[in-house]
Design goal:
- The protein is an alpha/beta fold.
- It is about 35% helix and about 15% strand.
- The strands form 3 sheets. A 6-stranded parallel beta sheet has the order 5-6-7-8-9-10. Strands 1-4 form a two-stranded parallel ribbon. The protein has a two-stranded antiparallel ribbon with strand order 2-3.
- The protein is globular, with a radius of gyration of 20 Å.
- The mean pLDDT is about 90.
Length: about 375
């Protein structure tokens, strides 16, 4: 495994998604029903994205995203636009602490392939066109992990209809991601984030599986995840930041659940990411910072972006409490390898979390000011 050079220099950042304005929320339904055309929807989306980027910069962010305004769901829209994937309306359901998420499901209509005309490429080109010099644009896409699950957590369950072997299926997934990363780079992208909340569900038992059978399933899945992500990162250009975000899911301020980072440390320490965005807004559920020490020993170049500011509620954290937690993290990892962010996006789905726009930006301001006071610099650590 190749260890990448240290290149993530930001002392504060965001996970990527922001609350959608009401006009954009309405436009998602209007374009689906035919009330407005796709071109009219794109115009509404672009106008909203322009305003968002202006606000991100005004609030001190040196890394901007399009807020994931180009999608209704943080991962389904990317996978749905790959070749060979068919959308199943209302075919995806998950229970988030009593709240049911119902969204489009996915199934294969043939072998899964890279799409050189994927609309995320066009969306990135627009984002880059409105991002001023000196500001970094980043794009978020799902990690390949959800494509690997079978049983209870399967996102695509019928791959065996088109593949003679699991290995053949994994080979096509790898090709898709390698080609996608390469094309983003050709378009000018230098910061790509692979969102991977599924990792915390890897060790959860599947219904009907027990003991050694489930243990063998988990080990096989872990090996597949590590192999795929290692190869994706190792073939990415050296000057492209490749980050990941790992959490328990996020829908209407509710979480899906899963293990702690301690339960997947053996996976994380094998993944040569430049930055790990990790939620730590509820340390009773998330666990302590000890797993960071093990990952740091294996991946000394990696920065841990501590998600200490919750996006699930409007209550504003005290800056002193955030700095105290950063000091606790420094007991196991040098400050040079730490950064600060909200714990998750503000809207992993179009519905968004239970706070308003002002409260969202108050959270961003808190992250920015806390980081500046802690690292004694604006946005970048200087080597």
């Amino acid at each position: 495994m190749t260890v990448r050079k240290h290149q993530y220099f930001y002392t504060y950042d965001t996970v990527g998604s922001f609350l959608r304005p009401e006009k954009l929320k309405q436009a998602y339904d209007q374009v689906d029903s035919g009330e407005i055309s796709p071109e009219e929807f794109t115009e509404i989306q672009h106008d909203a994205t322009k305003e968002l980027v202006k606000k991100e910069i005004a609030h001190g962010l040196h890394v901007v995203s399009d807020g994931e305004y180009n999608r209704k769901n943080f991962f389904i829209d990317f996978l749905a636009d790959l070749k060979g994937v068919k959308v199943v309306p209302d075919g995806f359901k998950l229970n988030f602490s009593g709240q049911e998420l119902v969204d489009d499901g996915l199934k294969l209509a043939g072998k899964i392939e890279y799409n050189p005309e994927h609309r995320f490429f066009t969306d990135y080109e627009f984002l880059q066109s409105i991002t001023p010099a000196g500001v970094q644009a980043k794009v978020t896409i799902p990690a390949p992990t959800p494509l690997l699950f079978e049983g209870d957590f399967a996102v695509i369950s019928n791959y065996r209809d088109f593949y003679a072997s699991r290995e053949e299926y994994l080979t096509d997934i790898l090709k898709i991601y390698q080609q996608t990363v390469a094309h983003f780079y050709e378009l000018g992208l230098r910061y790509l984030q692979l969102d991977d909340p599924w990792l915390l569900g890897v060790t959860l038992p599947i219904a009907g599986m027990q003991g050694n059978e489930n243990g063998a399933r988990v080990e096989k899945l872990e090996n597949e995840i590590v192999s795929l992500i290692q190869q994706i990162i190792e073939t990415a250009p050296d000057d492209m930041i490749i980050a990941t975000h790992i959490c328990r899911g996020n829908f209407h301020s509710a979480s899906l659940g899963g293990g702690t980072y301690a339960s997947i440390t053996n996976i994380l320490q094998q993944l040569p990411y430049d930055a790990f965005f990790m939620e730590y807004d509820d340390m009773q559920a998330d666990g302590d910072f000890e797993p960071l020490a093990r990952i740091h020993r294996a991946q000394p170049q990696a920065v841990f972006v501590l998600g200490l500011v919750t996006t699930k509620s409007p209550q504003l954290e005290a800056k002193q409490n955030l700095q105290h937690k950063i000091l606790q993290a420094m007991d196991v990892v040098p400050l040079h390898n730490l950064s600060l962010s909200p714990q998750c996006g503000f809207a992993s789905t179009k519905e968004g979390n239970d706070l308003n726009e002002k409260q969202q930006w108050d959270k961003i301001d808190l992250v920015v000011q806390t980081a500046r006071d802690t690292w004694k610099t604006d946005a970048c650590r200087f080597d």
